[in-house]
Design a protein that fits this description.
The chain is an alpha/beta fold and 353 residues long. It folds into two domains: 3-9 and 248-345, D-serine dehydratase-like domain (Lyase, Ornithine Decarboxylase, Chain A, domain 1, Beta Barrel), CATH 2.40.37; 15-236, TIM Barrel. 28% of the residues lie in helices and 23% in strands. It contains nine helices and 16 strands. Strands 1, 10, 11, 12, 13, 14, 15 and 16 form an eight-stranded mixed beta sheet that branches. The chain has an eight-stranded parallel beta sheet with strand order 2-9-8-7-6-5-4-3. Strand 12 (292-295) and strand 13 (300-303) form a beta hairpin. The model has no long low-confidence stretch (mean pLDDT 97). Pyridoxal-5'-phosphate (PLP) binds next to loops.
Length: 353
């Protein structure tokens, strides 16, 4: 099959850029104490998670229980849910999943810890628990070392829970365009995490793992980082948001569209906001970089004259945000030059529970 035979709008993945991104991450982690635990939220595609494991990932990180269930179904044996699972209805599912793989979850609240223990006791299983620590993103996480220690000790006292370590994701710095500010603030967080780890260990609890990090911050981690698990996700794909940071990774993910109408002052494409997520940067059309863009549900209008584009032509678009764009597609076409070499199902797309 050739690229121009793909029914559009459709996601395509450039095989060579993907391979380069795998290699760049290997290079970045060479000599580092961190092991890659790539975040599944970016691809939601079991085939890609399997490739990452074959490439040396220690396990796969995800955000949701339903994603973790999909990963286990695909044979991924080590899974970290970098998030809280609180709803009572979900806890028996979480406990059942812990019986099928090596599962870790986060907690930031004593009530949740006791509910996790109850669910694990009912299933006669064991669950690893990371205490989430707030490092500036203002999402989940306890805010002081004392609160952290209290929760870690509570977890350690539960017969069916294992205190695993620290989850500390500095998401507010992932897209920080000022490289020196990004580095300085990350070093500050690194110092806080080292102090926290020492404090917890002085109080008798070993911290086995420190988890976090992203595509945007991976290269800024010091060689003696306290982090052991790097949770970068977008590095394989990249997107218009990450492109602005001039990172070492290449653009590999594109939305392929078709020109469906050409007028004197504009060109219309067959994909709009139902094919392209709009939660971060505006998608980029490299063939017409200066055109003003109007998005609607199923159309994109590029305001440009004398373009030489004609009906039926394909046009590539760099999504503004790869993770949320993957989440609205059922499949992705792996392409090598003009050839389609594989088609992968994005089975976890829409899995938000
Ligand atoms: C917990 C966690 N870790 C890591 C990431 C980093 O992902 P990326 O490399 O795609 O920026 C995210 C992104 O949302 C996240 O929520």
């Amino acid at each position: 099959m050739k690229i121009h035979e793909i029914e559009t709008p459709a996601l395509i993945l450039d095989k060579h850029a993907l391979e380069k991104n795998f290699q760049e991450m290997d290079r970045l982690l060479d000599g580092s104490p961190m092991t890659l635990y790539p975040h599944y939220k970016s691809n939601k595609c079991p085939r890609i998670a399997q490739m990452q494991m074959q490439h040396g990932a220690g396990g796969i990180t995800c955000a949701k229980l339903s994603e973790a269930e999909d990963l286990a179904e695909a044979g991924i044996s080590t899974i970290v849910i970098a998030n809280q699972v609180v709803q009572a209805e979900k806890l028996p599912r979480l406990a059942a999943l812990a019986g099928r793989c090596d599962l870790t979850v986060c907690a930031d609240d004593p009530e949740n810890v006791l509910a996790l223990e109850q669910a694990m006791a009912a299933a006669s299983g064991q669950l690893r628990v990371l205490v989430e620590y707030e490092v500036g993103m203002r999402r989940c996480g306890v805010e002081t070392p004392e609160e952290f220690l209290f929760l870690a000790q509570l977890i350690d006292a539960q017969p069916h829970l294992i205190f695993e370590g620290i989850q500390a994701y500095a998401g507010h710095l992932s897209h920080e365009s000022d490289a020196s500010r990004r580095k300085t603030e990350l070093l500050d967080i690194e110092a806080r995490i080292k102090a926290l780890k020492a404090f917890v260990e002085q109080n008798g609890l070993p911290v086995r793992n420190v988890c976090g990090g992203s595509t945007g911050t991976a290269a800024d981690k010091p060689l003696d980082t306290a982090y052991t698990q790097l949770q970068a996700g977008s590095y394989l794909f990249m997107d218009a948001t990450y492109e602005t940071l001039n990172l070492r990774f290449q653009q590999a993910l594109f939305l392929l569209t078709t020109v469906i109408s050409v007028k004197e002052d504009r060109v219309m494409l067959d994909g709009g906001v139902k094919s392209l997520a709009m939660d971060q940067a505006v998608p980029v059309f490299p063939a017409l970089p200066d055109a003003e863009i109007i998005f609607s549900e199923e159309h994109t209008t590029l305001l440009a004259r004398n373009t030489s584009l004609k009906l039926g032509d394909n046009m590539r678009c760099i999504p503004g945000h790869c993770c949320t764009t993957m989440n609205i597609h059922d499949k992705i076409y792996l392409v090598d030059g003009e050839d389609v070499v594989d088609v992968w199902a994005i089975t976890s797309r829409g899995k938000a529970q």
